[in-house]
Amino acid sequence: MFDFQHFIEMLPDIWKAFGETLQMIGISVAFAILFGIPLGIILFITNRGLFLENRLLNGVLGFVINLVRSIPFLILIVALIPLTRLIVGETIGPIAASVSLSIAAIPFLARIVETSLREIDKGVIEAAIAIGATPWMIIKGVLLPEAKSSIIQGITLTIISLIAFSAMAGTVGGGGIGDLAVRFGYYRYDNTIMISTIVILVILVQLLQQAGDLIAKVIDKR
């Protein structure tokens, strides 16, 4: 049963865990945007028939991205322990978990961006090439403006997926809502904490989805 008094007593721990979750997600989303969007663009423009076609580069990048995406997240966390220790000097806590979350998020967003760019009318790209636009001009003036609404939706989907991943990271010492749910909700059979963490995550996902949909709708030029 849900104990409201116990919930009030645990609010400091809940807020701390919520803050750690936001920290993990914020860091990993930043790296996903910084590297995932360019990777997605490269995957698209180096594909067959595009203006920077390069089958070797496209094949290598595609293989690496598919490889990372095929690894279950919990296994990825364990596999990246040496890299995490090298980068941040520790293997537990939200900062350490952000390493694995970022590496999982980058290829995820890259594929979404590539898919978004594939939806662009090829005639628009061909027209830009015909008037002598450089590759950078095409990327900046055609690809990103045409696909920005879909990319925003892709970023939203990435963030929501990272919330689930961050909860899993908590089970192996990553901190955040997942860690709180395991330590109190699971090991101590604390239904109040378990219900609270679920409600918090559901509300967070709903708010993010609505915000992402609204932003995508506002900037959609179609």
UniProtKB/TrEMBL annotation:
This protein's GO CC annotations: plasma membrane
Lineage top rank: taxon: Bacteria
Swiss-Prot/TrEMBL keywords: Cell membrane, Membrane, Transmembrane, Transmembrane helix, Transport
CDD domains: TM_PBP2
Subcellular location per the Swiss-Prot or TrEMBL entry: Cell membrane
GO biological process, any: D-methionine transmembrane transport
Membrane topology of the entry: Multi-pass membrane protein
UniProt xrefs under Gene3D superfamilies: MetI-like
Similarity comment text for this entry: Belongs to the binding-protein-dependent transport system permease family. CysTW subfamily.
Protein name (database record): Methionine ABC transporter permease
Organism: Lederbergia galactosidilytica
